[in-house]
Amino acid sequence: MARPTIADIADRAGVSKGAVSFALNGRPGVSDATRARILQIAEQMSWRPHSAARALGASRVDSVGLVIARPARTLGVEPFFAHLLSGLQSGLSARSISLQLLIVENTAAEIEVYRRWASEHRVDGVILVDLTVKDPRIDALRELELPAVVIGGRGGKGALASVWADDRDAMLSIVDYLAALGHRRIAHVAGTPNFQHTQRRIRAVRDAAPRLGLVDAPSLTTDFSDAEGAATTRKLLSQADRPTAIVYDSDVMAVAGLGVAMEMGVSVPGDLSIVAFDDSILTQLMHPALTALSRDTFEFGRQAAEVLLEVVADPAKVINLRTADPVLTVRESTAPPATH
Amino acid sequence: MARPTIADIADRAGVSKGAVSFALNGRPGVSDATRARILQIAEQMSWRPHSAARALGASRVDSVGLVIARPARTLGVEPFFAHLLSGLQSGLSARSISLQLLIVENTAAEIEVYRRWASEHRVDGVILVDLTVKDPRIDALRELELPAVVIGGRGGKGALASVWADDRDAMLSIVDYLAALGHRRIAHVAGTPNFQHTQRRIRAVRDAAPRLGLVDAPSLTTDFSDAEGAATTRKLLSQADRPTAIVYDSDVMAVAGLGVAMEMGVSVPGDLSIVAFDDSILTQLMHPALTALSRDTFEFGRQAAEVLLEVVADPAKVINLRTADPVLTVRESTAPPATH
DNA sequence: CTGAAGTGATAAACCGGTATAGCTCCTGCA
DNA sequence: TGCAGGAGCTATACCGGTTTATCACTTCAG
Predict the structure, then answer these.
(1) Distance A54 CA to D4 C1' (A)
(2) Which residues form the HTH lacI-type domain (chains A, B) (predicted)?
(3) How far apart are CA A249 and CA A192, in angstroms?
(4) What is the model's pLDDT at position B246?
(5) Residue numbers in B near A122 (CB within 8 A)
(6) Which among B43, B45, B48, B112 is the top mutation candidate for probing chain A, defined by the most A β-carbons within 10 Å of its own β-carbon?
């Protein structure tokens, strides 16, 4: 017999389909002896529930979705998503819930996917990444009544559950460290301005500047690409009063920045300190290796999965979980500024 | 009405459920007029099929799976999977088939996933990557009767469909180019020896050596990590007769190798030419930018998706599709060897 | 004029589970 | 002795589609 159904098990055990269902789902209604017998037969026939049948009856599909709205070209270089995925799966596998992944070009397409998933009952809930200012996805998901958890930002006014890290504190820890080394001209090469976390990081730099006596602390926004990271660095290093330290919002941009420094004959960390707001193997492949802020992205994903499952189980619940703070891993790209 | 079913549509149209099903699936049994009316009502009620219900009835779930058996840590740096995913989706989205992604630690876990997916009817077929010599997954999938397409290798003796690129020709194009530049001492830092493509590349180097008059052409295997890439490079460059050119099986190892060369005072491309057997943004971030073999991974994924859908539709079909040959993108890391 | 074939539809079975109403014992208590 | 109540199980409806058997009716060939 290729793929046994509960009817087959019921036959063999000499009981009804209902009894088998009760036994397999650990609910009352069968004696311990019968339950044991049924479980043994199921095991022996290597029975597994047909996911579609279960979904149809129980109106849950044991599957959650993740849509990433970024051009594929910029993906993959950053290990962020790979780690996040692993973490998510680790959190989901406990209850053997599967993950649907979709990469789309933009937010409009992403919302369209949610709409389709909701109407086709393909997922029980979704995970939101790259939260933007006034993010249209929040309203869309609420309207669709699709359970969701936001990663890396707050889910709007009491709307969606979220798992977030404190970007502000993280950025402050970087700027504090650089200031302690003696830097007073610190620049910030930021990401896309419409991302919430970009805004928070920019604000953190701006707010810290007076307290630390920074002469100048500009935040320049980019599109997160290596090209703009390089171009912005070139601009910064061409100024009369060039910064003695630059903080990059991503490791890719930091690497691009390092390349520009070398190309312009600016020594790192002698003339310029570099910090990446994100860690990966990239930062360690460089010479000098880059000082970077390490986040436990795997754990991040794991927690997000758990929160999502809670929200799926009880959509009324609103959870805002703050994860462990990221830590600054100091390597070779930071040093006190040259005295002149 | 939140989520209309075909019964609702049938009510409104004044026909039976069956007629609605026929109309929506474009099969005979209803008149053109009725069909048009039903389609219009469905559209107006923004009806979408309930995926589980359809799966249960039609015994296909419109979903395929991809399992990647690699530690998450080594993923993500290479954009290979991100591009492959996008390509796969592009090929699947046409028939709105969704993709299940799972990252696991090893092949045993991967096979376990296939077993589960098959018995739970979660996917119609799977995509296999990282084919090894005597790959146990092939037999497992055949036994499970799960349609599959192999990416980057042949699917065994007439067993599984495959989409593959010619690694041998690609490697030859690299070695030919280096030999034409004048290099006679060429080393090959290969990946894991149990991967089929590693074997093919090693064989290609070995076979080409006599024809090109290479003095020495060792292939050294690694675990694909930056650490082993660096260590192997260190060993090669410490030899009395060090190679004047090194070909790396991955871009990450090539970057690590470049770092070692710099650290040992070996100038690139003056004293050493470097080629990466895989392209990505990484190679372009370096100084010098690395000469690399570019493959159209997106297209690769798209074709794999199409082949898989054909195999799902007709499991008896065996397709072996050879994709476009990769091309060598020459950048700054290759030059004729120094004369001494 | 009759029978065969074709068209456009319906009703009902079915896919493989879950949920529920109801039935049969058995036990305990008044 | 009677009856409430619970344990243990069965029968059946149901989820939302697909598929098949069947049927009424038209058309057309013989």
Answers:
(1) 37
(2) 4-58
(3) 10
(4) 98
(5) 51, 98
(6) B48
Rounded distance in angstroms from the CA atom of residue B53 to the C1' atom of nucleotide C15: 9
Asked whether residue A5's C-beta has any atom of DNA/RNA strand C within 7 A, the reply is: yes
* Strand bridging mode B186-189 / B245-248: parallel
* Integer Cα distance of A295 and A293 in angstroms: 7
Task: Fill in the DSSP letter of residue A261.
Answer: H
Measured CA to CA, the distance from residue A245 to residue A236 in angstroms comes to 10
Cα–Cα distances in Å, from B59 out to A179, B121, B140, B316?
Answer: 64, 8, 21, 18
Could you count the other beta carbons within 10 Å of the beta carbon of residue B340? 4
Please report the pLDDT score of residue A73 as a whole number: 65
A22 backbone dihedrals φ, ψ, rounded to 5°: -60, -50
DSSP B193: T
List chain A residues with CB under 8 Å of B116. Answer: 48, 96
The pLDDT, as a whole number, for residue A74 is 66
Encoded amino acid at A340, one letter: H
Question: At B37, is the pLDDT very low, low, confident or very high (cuts 50, 70, 90)?
Answer: very high
Q: Helix, strand, or coil here: B125?
A: strand
* A23-32, A68-77, A233-242, range with the lowest pLDDT: A68-77
CB contact under 8 A, A72 and B52: no
For residues A83-96, give the mean pLDDT: 87
Q: Are A85 and B88 in contact (CB under 8 A)?
A: no
Question: Quick one: tokens of B300?
Answer: 């690769």
Cβ of B51 and A120 within 8 Å? yes
For Cα atoms A258, A260, A263, give the angle at the middle one, nearest 5 degrees: 110
Nearest to A194 by CA among A136, A254, A127: A136
Query: For strand B161-164 and strand B148-151, is the pairing parallel, antiparallel, or unpaired?
Result: parallel
Measured distance CA(B322)–CA(B320) in Å, rounded:
7
- CA R_g for chain A: 25
Work out the pLDDT band at A282, boundaries 50, 70, 90. confident
- A213-222 in b/e form (b: 16+ CB < 10 A) is ebeebbbbbb
Q: How far is the CA of A47 from the C1' of C27 (A)?
A: 37
CA geometry: angle A280, A282, A283, nearest 5 deg: 80
Lowest mean pLDDT among A35-39, A139-143, A314-318, B321-325: A314-318
- Which residue in the block uniquely carries the two structure tokens 């700054």? B332
C-alpha A148/C-alpha A128 separation (Å) is 7
Under 8 Å between Cβ of A208 and A159: no
Q: Which nucleotides of D are covered by protein (CB under 7 A)?
A: 7-21
B233: Cα separation from own chain's centroid: 27
Chains A, B: CB contacts within 8 A come to: 156
Round to whole Å and give the CA distance between A201 and A188.
Answer: 9
Band of the pLDDT at A278, cuts 50, 70, 90? confident
